[in-house]
Amino acid sequence: MLKKTIVILALLTAWTTVASASSVAVSTANVNLRAGPAVSYPVVTVVPQGARIVTHGCVADYAWCDVALGNYRGWVSASYIHVVYNGVPVVLSAAVAPAVGVTVVAYDRVYWDTYYVAQPWYGSWTAYYRPYAPASPRVTSQSRSATCADGNCTGTRAATGIHGGATSQTRNCAGGECSATRETTGRYGNSASRVRSCSAGDRSCDMTRTGPRGGTATGTRSFSR
After folding, report:
1. Is residue 133 within 8 Å of residue 107, measured between CB atoms?
2. Which residues does residue 153 pair with via DSSP β-bridges, in sequence order?
3. Taking the complete model, does pTM exceed 0.70, yes or no?
4. DSSP string, the chain
5. Which pLDDT tens digit goes with each residue over 27-70?
6. If 0-12 CB within 10 Å is exposed, 13-18 middle and 19+ buried, where does residue 155 land?
7. Among positive and negative, which fits the CA dihedral 19, 101, 80, 25?
8. What is the pLDDT of residues 142-157, one digit of tens each?
9. End-to-end CA gap in the chain
């Protein structure tokens, strides 16, 4: 999580130069660029974490988006795409997309024929293609917010599941230190939590998990830059 957060924070100073182009976004992880809006499609290339990409549109539920990385064209899960919204980078979603100018686009054989003629799997359209069907929703409500001021960024999100469980998480980063607290309550009232603190200076993360029966587990993980 820290590596992902550091990349986002490092990009904050650059957003002002690209925010005016609503189709410009950033990948938040090393993610496969696929030939269609599903994991069943072949991989075109890998989009590196922190790479600037151009978003040309998304399928109707905004779960997958048509993006360009240099000369490559393909589809990436929207959960790995950050766009600028209200001055801060946020995950591209159905709630955010209209405000940043990302529209709904179709996926069809024309797209395949336009971009993948030279690929070894080009002749296998019928083997790969399936009409896109949005996944059944797993939550009944969700919220997300992020604010940054004076070098301090705080993000919160919460969701309620279709069976009654709920989870919430708060992340805060400032001065090379990041912390995240997640609280989850199951459908039958049991709860669990996770607290993680990471330091760029120490290059390590400390984590404590508390299970629904009260048990705890702790650990420390080091990382390199």
Report:
1. no
2. 148, 173
3. no
4. -HHHHHHHHHHGGGHHHHTTSTTEEEESS-EEEESSSSTTSPEEEEEPTT-EEEEEEE-TTSSEEEEEETTEEEEEEGGGEEEEETTEEEE--TTTGGGGT--B----HHHHHHH-TTSTTGGGHHHH-----PPPP-EEEEEEEEEEETTEEEEEEEEEETTS-EEEEEEEEETTEEEEEEEEE-TTS-EEEEEEEEETTTTEEEEEEE-TTS-EEEEEEE---
5. 999 999 999 999 999 999 999 999 999 999 999 999 999 999 99
6. buried
7. negative
8. 888 888 888 899 989 8
9. 13
| Per-residue tokens: 175 | 């001065």
CA dist 30 and 2 (Å) reads 15
Are the C-beta atoms of residues 158 and 174 closer than 8 Å to each other?
Answer: no
Cα–Cα distance for residue pair 182/179, rounded to 1 Å: 10
Show Cβ contacts of residue 125 under 8 Å, excluding neighbours closer than 6 positions. 109, 112
Residue 53 φ/ψ, nearest 5 degrees: -130, 160
Q: Please give the C-alpha separations between residue 4 and each of 1, 37, 42, 98, 118, in angstroms, as whole numbers.
A: 5, 24, 26, 25, 34
Encoded tokens for 219: 């650990």
In the chain, the amino acid numbered 74 is G
Backbone angles phi, psi at 179, to 5 degrees: -135, 150
